[in-house]
């Protein structure tokens, strides 16, 4: 007898057929319905706009932009030099020049008009008549910590490392001490220093008068009355005016009495006693010492001189004094 094939049941019949016991045990327990029911949505449907539940933070007011930019005492490095060396290989080629500044310095770095450098200048062998300066001395005069910061903050200056022959020559000129022969020495041309710093490297320098960039200094508002190194026009005059004002206020700034306004002067009594009239004191010194003659004869010291008669005490007396002291201590 052939086994009968199971008949295909309709979906309705399958719902009515109870599951087998093994199938009932294999089913996992129903999970709690924490997820809300989801309805099918059309993929092309636009999502509703979601409004934020938090209150938007109030935007800070825009900061006012300064209308006037801060003026610089010196032009930036990239304004007047390139990154290419000149024919001598000791300084960068200038990109911009000042006609008035060119009249103050020669191509070899020599100053015109009786000006003098604040740093020592010297000649270097095999470099012609061009003037050079020690980088360490320039850094000290200009207020830099060392020559590294001098070249790092001023890219227009070209750093030259002196060779042994040049260092020996500087020692012979007494520019360097003998102990510096084995150290690394950096030098820089005097002309590039004047182009970069102007009146700051001039003895008794003044703005505009001793600046290389005279045209730019005048446009920034500087005058010859400003001292070298001033970063704001008229700063020296402002300091002098403030000093005079403080001095004048100190003259009239003494302590004053309290001012009382009243129409009844009788309540203040009489005038205070003046301190200019001193009280009269009776001097009796002339009466007490009137009989002493200052011009009389002096009394001479007469008699034998003082003789020291101290001597050592006998032993018996010392023992007696010690015995009395011991007895007194017992009684106390």
From TrEMBL:
Basic and acidic residues bias spans: 92-105, 228-242
UniProt superkingdom: Eukaryota
A GO molecular-function descriptor: chromatin DNA binding
Keyword set, alphabetical order: Transcription, Transcription regulation
Bias (Pro residues): 27-39
Keyword Cytoplasm in record: no
Residue ranges, compositional bias (Low complexity): 66-75
Bias (Polar residues): 42-54
Segments for region (Disordered): 1-112, 227-254
Any Gene Ontology CC annotation: RSC-type complex
Name assigned to this protein: Uncharacterized protein
């Amino acid at each position: 007898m052939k086994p009968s094939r199971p008949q295909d049941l309709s979906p309705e019949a399958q719902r009515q057929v109870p599951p087998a016991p093994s199938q009932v045990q294999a089913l996992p327990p129903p999970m709690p319905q924490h997820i809300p029911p989801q309805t099918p949505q059309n993929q092309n449907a636009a999502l509703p706009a979601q409004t934020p539940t938090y209150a938007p933070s109030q935007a800070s007011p825009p900061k006012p932009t300064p209308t006037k930019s801060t003026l610089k005492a010196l032009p930036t490095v990239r304004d007047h030099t390139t990154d290419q060396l000149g024919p001598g290989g000791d300084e960068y080629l200038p990109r911009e020049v000042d006609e008035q500044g060119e009249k103050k310095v020669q191509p070899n770095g020599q100053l015109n008009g009786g000006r003098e450098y604040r740093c020592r200048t010297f000649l270097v062998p095999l470099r012609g008549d061009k003037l050079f300066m020690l980088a360490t001395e320039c850094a000290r005069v200009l207020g830099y910590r060392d020559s590294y910061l001098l070249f790092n903050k001023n890219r227009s200056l070209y750093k030259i490392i002196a060779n042994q022959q040049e260092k020996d020559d500087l020692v012979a000129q007494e520019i360097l001490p003998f102990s510096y022969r084995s150290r690394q020495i950096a030098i820089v041309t005097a002309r590039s220093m004047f182009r970069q710093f102007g009146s700051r490297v001039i003895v008794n320098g003044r703005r505009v008068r001793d600046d290389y960039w005279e045209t730019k200094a005048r446009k920034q508002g500087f005058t010859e009355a400003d001292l070298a190194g001033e970063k704001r026009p008229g700063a020296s005059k402002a300091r002098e005016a403030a000093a005079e004002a403080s001095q004048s206020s100190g003259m009239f700034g003494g302590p004053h009495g309290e001012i009382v306004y009243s129409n009844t002067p009788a309540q203040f009594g009489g005038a205070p006693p003046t301190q200019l009239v001193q009280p009269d004191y009776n001097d009796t010194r002339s009466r007490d010492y009137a009989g002493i003659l200052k011009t009389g004869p002096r009394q001479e010291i007469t008699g034998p001189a003082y003789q020291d008669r101290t001597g050592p005490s006998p032993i018996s007396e010392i023992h007696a004094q010690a015995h009395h002291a011991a007895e007194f201590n017992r009684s106390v």
